[in-house]
Amino acid sequence: xxxxxxxxxxxxxxxxxxxxxxxxxxxxxxxxxxxxxxxxxxxxxxxxxxxxxxxxxxxxxxxxxxxxxxxxxxxxxxxxxxxxxxxxxxxxxxxxxxxxxxxxxxxxxxxxxxxxxxxxxxxxxxxxxxxxxxxxxxxxxxxxxxxxxxxxxxxxxxxxxxxxxxxxxxxx
Length: 172
Fold this sequence. Notes:
By secondary structure, this protein is an alpha+beta fold. The chain contains 6 helices and 8 strands. Helix 4 crosses helix 5. Mean pLDDT is 82; it is low at 6-11 and 19-25.
């Protein structure tokens, strides 16, 4: 996950905008500053470079703008366990424009997302524990709370940096 709040920010997670022409997506994002193009997921193919070392801008990047176009009406829960999925640009009176917001706008009732970069192994342990509770019938918010409490009580993942970034937005 990435949030290009500021190009020099730590939240870029190594993602940078490459501009090959004034009409490129990178140029548009940098000048227009559409906050929903500045957050998203870097998927397989995101680093693909085409012929003559020209970046293939669209491959492997799922932007928050694209997520907002999905039809998720009737979806109870979307889980975004990647880094910074709840981070984005703040607009006065509008809130945070982040990947998680886009999934809510697309119709998801609730979104479980992260507020900072998360450790891969800790996230695996967290999600395994969360899904064990959720799939056993525990309501999503309660499963989230119980998972956080369980990790906080001891073990390798008791420090808040491992379990605190996971938050849920949306309906109760």
